[in-house]
Design goal:
The chain is an alpha/beta fold. It is 40% helix and 16% strand. A hairpin with a 3-residue loop joins strand 12 and strand 13 (341-345). Helix 3 (52-61) packs antiparallel against helix 11, helix 5 (96-108) crosses helix 10 (246-255) and helix 12 (276-299) packs parallel to helix 14 (349-362). The chain binds pyridoxal-5'-phosphate (PLP).
């Protein structure tokens, strides 16, 4: 077959992007190795699956997908407005919260503008900034793997447009406390958008967790992002939401594609919101899984970071990629994080047991 050379070149700020590497899909691993029964603990998905109410709603809606979805997500925004006690015009719906990160950068940043973010943190902040030819300013986490908001505040310049804070942080599972966040919000200029990414909000048990809604209610320039991908178990449907001042939402809506979320996702999300039993059950199984994994990892004398999420950051000291690859061979998919760490999602009891067994064999 003839190979044609492509002469068009993407600009440098695009060629420089390191593509996001998702967790390896189960089907792909099983196809490659010719095995079955492998376990994926790599993408912080809810091991219980979606709420049965959400499944039923999506099934009901599938018969009418000849129609375009409601581009304004009216019913979902109304449900969220009641659920969160915020106004309709203060909510935006995204194709996952991922899309809202992108829209925030595209709406508020120009080439050369800076975005401050933690490191390691969710890599999409870096990529969304690069896509608009902005400059990512990465600030190392503290020794205990938490956002260093003082150091981040010190990195703010006249060019800063956005500060991204994952709370809790991915991949470390740590939180920013109320006091730390209040101090930070007092210092940060009002012409800077503070994006607080609360993808794992519903899992947080620590009573010191920062209250972002308080700052939104007091008129701060803040965008709070949450998702239906994690505790609500709808990652495959791609739906999340943002909360901010109506002027911020209004500008972001101009950048958003008219039909960015689909009708199945909208309907499933509304149903999922009502299923408190599913949320409570998901928290409970996660807490039990955390306790089991903490116990086993401690017995093994492995360093790990206590988490406020549904994943655990494990310090393997070296060769994280080698360990990851060996675990893959045994049908266990986790996520290597840099040279020295693995991130493992808390799964069902039997999945957690398999993880510990295979991890022991490999290290
Ligand atoms: C911190 C953080 N933010 C956002 C997301 C993306 O979630 P969504 O599926 O809503 O795009 C994730 C998913 O892994 C995440 O860890």
């Amino acid at each position: 077959m003839e190979i044609f050379r492509v002469l068009i070149k993407a600009p440098k700020h695009i060629t420089d992007i390191n593509p996001y590497v998702p967790g390896k899909p189960i089907e792909e691993l099983e196809r490659e190795l010719g095995i079955t029964g492998s376990i994926k603990l790599a993408s912080n998905e809810n091991p219980l699956g979606p709420s049965p109410l959400a499944i039923a709603e999506a099934q009901r809606i599938i018969a009418s997908v000849n129609r375009y979805p409601d581009g304004g997500s009216y019913r979902l925004i109304s449900a969220l407005s009641l659920h969160l006690n915020v106004r309709h015009e203060e909510i935006i719906i995204g194709h996952g919260s991922n899309e809202l990160l992108d829209i925030a950068a595209r709406t508020f940043m120009q080439p050369g503008d800076e975005a401050v973010m933690g490191h390691p943190s969710f890599v999409v902040y870096h990529n969304s900034t690069q896509k608009v030819n902005g400059v990512p300013v990465a600030v190392a986490l503290t020794a205990d793997k938490r956002h260093d908001l003082k150091a981040m505040a010190a990195k703010i310049t006249q060019k800063t447009k956005i500060v991204f804070i994952a709370n809790p942080n991915n991949p470390t599972g740590t939180i920013v406390t109320r006091e730390e966040f209040d101090d930070f919000m007092e210092q940060v200029r009002d012409d800077i958008l503070v994006v607080v990414d609360e993808a794992y909000f519903e899992y947080v048990a620590d009573s010191f967790y920062a209250d972002s809604i308080k700052h939104f209610k007091s008129g701060k320039t803040i965008l709070i992002l949450r998702t239906f991908s994690k505790i609500y178990g709808l990652a495959g449907l791609r739906i999340g939401y943002g909360i901010a001042n109506p002027e911020i939402i209004n500008e972001m809506n101009k950048v958003r594609e008219p039909f960015n979320t689909n009708s199945l996702a909208q309907a499933a999300a509304i149903a999922a919101l009502t299923d408190t039993q599913h949320v409570t059950g998901s928290v409970a199984i996660n807490e039990a899984g955390k306790a089991f994994l903490y116990g086993e990892l401690s017995k093994m004398n492995v360093d790990f970071t206590k988490t406020q999420t549904n994943f655990i950051y494990i310090d393997v000291k070296k060769d994280a990629k080698g360990i990851y690859k060996k675990m893959l061979q045994k049908g266990m998919i986790v996520r290597p994080m840099g040279e020295n760490a693995l991130r493992v999602t808390v799964g069902l009891p039997e999945e957690n047991e398999s993880f510990i067994r295979i991890f022991k064999e490999v290290i």
